[in-house]
Structure formats: structure tokens, C-alpha cells
Amino acid sequence: MRRRRTARTRLSGRQLLAAQAAVVGSLVATLFVRELPGIVRELRIYRMTGGLRAGHRYP
To answer: How far is CA 26 from CA 11, 30, 37, 54, 55, in A?
Structure first.
């Protein structure tokens, strides 16, 4: 019994996993790029307050 080939080819499990990884990776990269200015601002504030050396001066 021969199987008919359809117009749409089937994805293997490895191909599907690679496609999902690409989608998730692009979403994470997009989120990181969007949040980068806020992260930089928070790091600047952290450094101005003394960072780990500030100890008990800032709650």
C-alpha cells in the first residue's frame, strides 16, 4: 500500500523543536531589547548609590 504525498510535507520532531526554539529565542531577544533602557537606568542608579559597598546606608 503506497502513501500519497500531500502538498504539505510533515515536519520531523527535530525540525519542530528547532522551529519552536527559534520562536522562543526571538521573543526573548525582543523582550531583552525592549527592556534594555530600563536595565541600564537601574544599573546606573545602583552604581550611584554605592552598589554593594553602600551596606546599610540605603534600605
So the answer is: 20, 6, 18, 37, 38
Please state the length of the chain: 59
Residue with cell 534600605: 59
H, E, C per residue of 2-29 = CCCCCCCCCCCHHHHHHHHHHHHHHHHH
pLDDT, tens digit (0-9, with 9 covering 90-100), for 15-49: 999 999 999 999 999 999 999 999 999 999 988 88
Cell of 25: 529565542
Q: Rounded to whole angstroms, how far apart are CA atoms 26 and 42?
A: 24
pLDDT at 59: 57
Q: What is the pLDDT of residue 1?
A: 61
